[in-house]
């Protein structure tokens, strides 16, 4: 979908006009007359009165104007706008309604200075996932944003790039394991690495064994497809890098602690952390900020076979620490441990942020709308929370306390990956990961609940992958790291 902005109206096959609830159309007329042809404004005004349209959230009124220039028109209610997020949602609702009208060239007309939300809402709302040759139905080719506030091309391009990065992540996460194996994930990373200023290194299983990375290798040893660590480097400056680490478990069967029915089906989405990092790289390549970022993806499958690791096994990580496998389903932290240690030692980043669908406990605690954050540096977490707020994504801190650091110790090894009798599953995983980041400021994002919505879907995302945290991180990089 091509997107451009203008302060004047451009003829389109179908137009969505956004109206807030607390302002009557007649009070907005002056504004609308600066954008839309006068006859259309009068015609709309008439229809609004006839139909008693009041601009409530999700209210839609369809009009087929007689005046020239617009064949199909929908009025979309913005609600009371108590939360700016409503703009984003209304944009999603509008783009879907326009799709249904089978229009290819569409326009948004609005008076609120909320370009960011209109753009990202439209791109997110238009998203559909299809595999193979099946064409997306009623694809919209172009969207023109018409508003009295001038929008710079640079700002618009930034928004479009961030929103497209979200959809890129969604495609990766929605792809089932048969289409998104560790090998396929590597192929996708290589595709991203074709962009300007990015390079890629892949540590195959031979190299991982040489580096004694028994975490990622242990998890992957039950699969026919060998694990690999994929390292991307975006070099827009020579400063020390920020590191992003992603859990890329392409299928999590649970291993010998096999997941039951109702829990196993969506486990192809357990690589969402890696997909989040790739989405951010997609944005970096597109927007070329003057920053230095290293991304590490731990790509692996957690399967059952005669070769698979077993409960009771003891593995040794790349940093020499040992771990008792008390549950083969707590595999994510084992993969991340090796990735975190590798990036911390090799690249000496100024910060590390990891993304992982790590614990069911996070879903139990925070549900599907809130990402759980854990940290060793509260200010870093705070800066990510601010970025999330601007992007209408929700995050919440979960604590790591000294007791949890004690409880993850094992009698037979340095650590255990799961501790019987401790229910704070997300924080325990956080306490585990903390051992692998040295003293580098670090935030762990548990996206188990937010990355993939098994039921429902809403104005901004159909059922399935959401691309959560991609918007937040683009914002965070853009406003806290650029030019520093
Ligand atoms: N991939 C799962 C976590 C998960 C659960 C992601 C639900 C998305 C939705 C993870 O590997 C896992 O199985 N975690 C276990 C850990 C436990 C055995 C310590 C869990 O949370 O149940
Ligand atoms: Zn698991
Ligand atoms: Zn998992």
What does this structure look like?
- With 484 residues, the chain is α/β, with parallel strands linked by helices.
- Helix content is 37%, strand content 21%.
- The strands form four sheets. The protein has an eight-stranded mixed β-sheet, sandwiched between helices. A six-stranded mixed β-sheet has the order 1-6-5-2-4-3, with helices on both faces.
- Helix 3 crosses helix 4 and helix 8 (214-220) packs antiparallel against helix 10 (332-347).
- The protein is elongated, with a radius of gyration of 24 Å.
- The site of ligand BES has 16 residues, from helix 11.
Unreliable stretches (pLDDT < 50, length at least 5) are none
User: End-to-end distance, in Å?
Assistant: 33 Å
Output the radius of gyration: 24 Å
Instruction: Give me the number of helical elements.
Output: 15
Q: Which class best fits the helix and strand makeup?
A: alpha/beta
The outline comes out as elongated
Q: Walk across the major sheet and give the strand order.
A: 7-8-10-9-13-17-14-15
Helical content, roughly?
25-40%
Please report the total strand number as a whole number: 19
Largest sheet: 8 strands, mixed
- How would you state the average pLDDT, rounded? 95
Hetero ligands: ligand BES, zinc ion
Percent range for β-strand residues:
15-25%
């Amino acid at each position: 979908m091509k997107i451009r902005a203008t302060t004047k109206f451009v003829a389109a096959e179908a137009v969505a006009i956004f109206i807030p609830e607390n302002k009557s159309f007649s009070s907005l007329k002056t504004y609308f007359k600066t954008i839309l042809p006068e006859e259309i404004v009068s015609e709309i005004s008439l229809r609004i009165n006839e139909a008693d349209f009041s601009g409530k959230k999700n209210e839609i009124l369809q009009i087929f104007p007689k005046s020239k220039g617009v064949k199909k028109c929908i009025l979309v209610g913005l609600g009371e706008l108590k939360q700016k997020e409503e703009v984003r949602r209304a944009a999603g609702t509008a783009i879907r309604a326009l799709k249904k009208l089978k229009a290819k060239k569409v326009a948004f007309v609005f008076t609120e200075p909320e370009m960011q939300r209109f753009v990202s809402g439209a791109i997110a709302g238009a998203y559909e996932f299809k595999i193979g040759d099946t064409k997306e139905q009623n694809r919209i080719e172009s969207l023109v944003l018409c508003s009295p506030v001038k929008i710079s091309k640079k700002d618009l391009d930034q928004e479009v790039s961030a929103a497209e990065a979200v959809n890129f992540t969604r495609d990766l996460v929605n792809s089932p394991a048969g289409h998104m194996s560790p090998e396929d994930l590597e192929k996708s990373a290589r595709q991203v690495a074709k962009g300007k200023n990015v390079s890629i290194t892949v540590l195959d299983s031979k190299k991982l064994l040489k580096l004694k990375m028994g975490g990622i290798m242990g998890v992957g040893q039950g699969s026919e497809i060998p694990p690999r660590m994929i390292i991307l480097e975006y070099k827009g400056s020579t400063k020390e890098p920020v590191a992003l680490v992603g859990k890329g478990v392409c299928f999590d069967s649970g291993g010998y602690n096999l997941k039951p029915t109702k829990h196993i089906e969506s486990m192809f989405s357990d690589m969402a952390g890696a997909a989040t990092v790739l989405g951010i790289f997609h944005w970096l390549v597109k927007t070329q900020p003057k920053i230095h970022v290293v991304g590490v993806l731990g790509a692996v499958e957690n399967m059952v076979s005669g070769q698979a690791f077993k409960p009771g096994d003891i593995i040794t990580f790349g940093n020499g620490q040992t771990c008792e496998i008390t549950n083969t389903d707590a595999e994510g932290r084992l993969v991340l441990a090796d990735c975190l240690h590798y990036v911390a030692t090799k690249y000496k980043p100024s910060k590390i942020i990891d993304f992982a669908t790590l614990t069911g406990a996070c879903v139990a605690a925070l549900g599907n709308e809130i990402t759980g954050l854990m940290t060793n540096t509260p200010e870093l977490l705070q800066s990510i929370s601010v970025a999330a707020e601007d992007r209408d994504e929700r995050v919440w801190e979960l604590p790591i306390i000294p007791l949890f650091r004690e409880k993850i110790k094992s009698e037979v090894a340095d650590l255990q990956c799961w501790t019987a009798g401790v229910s704070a599953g997300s924080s325990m995983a956080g306490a585990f990961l903390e051992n692998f980041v040295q003293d580098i400021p670090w935030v762990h994002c548990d996206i188990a609940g937010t990355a993939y919505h098994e039921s429902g879907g809403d104005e901004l995302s159909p059922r399935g992958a959401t691309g959560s945290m991609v918007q937040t991180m683009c914002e965070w990089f853009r406003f806290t790291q650029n030019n520093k």
